[in-house]
């Protein structure tokens, strides 16, 4: 059985349209005009225990609205949600025991309390046994470096510290599922890295199911194997992250380290179709190539004919490029075809 089962999930927001001022408010009493916004439109989603899913899409796509319905904060207009056998908005307390939530835009901590006191409160609220609380606290202190600010109030700590504290708070009670809505927003690279490593570890070691929304696609590269892209409230892709990369990212780079520098390297590489030489320095160089024109294997064996290769590495394509294109409407994932690329790549 799936841990999360979502069928036909829809959220229609309805908000009053008023002219400005008192006159507008009075007029609204009589005319009552409303604008409607279909934020989430007939979404289906099945999630197995232990999966880590990236839920991405442009601003206003409906990501946060989906998360809010999954966590039980918002009631769907129509459709059904089952999370570990429960309907989140109907069984809010029971559901809360099973889930952890981090909203990057808003803290779940008590603003005026020292962070450690917020944790103690959560211990009581969730009735976390002493040993589990201590074990988790020690572990999270270590992994997230909480010691430096545990005794400061949430109001006084930096954004990066706050996000780390929020993550720990969301996971103290060993939830089965954690929903992360932009957990790295506004953070510097070092803190982002720390948070990514932490999330990955929680998923791999504890088998915690992760649903992650983000605009920083580096977040998902390491953590998520499954990618769900939504646009205007609808799912436009649901599948393997790697499959999207394989199908749509044309360019790859190989970095070579040679025993000795190759003489006349430029003219040598010029002999290969569509291959561009980059970053030449001593015995090292990189080549960028279109893998629909030539394979990495062909390039490697060509280079090996002209010198001794000590080491080489192929750069994985970045999902960033692909998803940007999807956002920009330049790529139709359903047809699986960009101008010259193929859905199933011919060559590695
Ligand atoms: N409470 C609300 N009342 C009316 N409209 C809303 C409400 N909450 C969200 N919306 C609208 O629903 C749509 C989806 O919003 P949502 O916050 O889910 O997008 P998102 O994908 O999380 O975007 P972002 O990447 O900017 O966080 C938007 O058009 C938004 O304006
Ligand atoms: Mg959002």
Explain what you see.
The protein has 348 residues and is an alpha/beta fold. The protein has two domains: 4-245, Rossmann fold, CATH 3.40.50.300; 250-315, Malonyl-CoA ACP transacylase, ACP-binding (Alpha-Beta Plaits), CATH 3.30.70.250. 35% of the residues lie in helices and 28% in strands. It is built from twelve helices and 13 strands. The protein has a six-stranded mixed sheet with strand order 5-6-7-3-8-9, sandwiched between helices. Strand 11 (275-281) and strand 12 (284-290) form a beta hairpin. Bound molecules: adenosine-5'-triphosphate and magnesium ion. Residues 63-64, 181 line the site of magnesium ion.
Fold topology:
Elements: E1 4-17, H1 21-31, E2 33-47, E3 52-56, H2 63-71, E4 78-83, H3 92-98, E5 99-103, H4 115-125, H5 130-144, H6 159-171, E6 177-181, H7 189-206, E7 209-213, H8 218-223, E8 226-231, E9 234-240, H9 241-248, E10 251-258, H10 265-270, E11 275-281, E12 284-290, H11 296-304, E13 309-315, H12 319-327
Parallel strand pairs: 3-7, 3-8, 5-6, 6-7
Antiparallel strand pairs: 1-2, 1-4, 8-9, 10-12, 10-13, 11-12
Helix pairs in contact: 5-6
The site of magnesium ion has 3 residues, from α2.
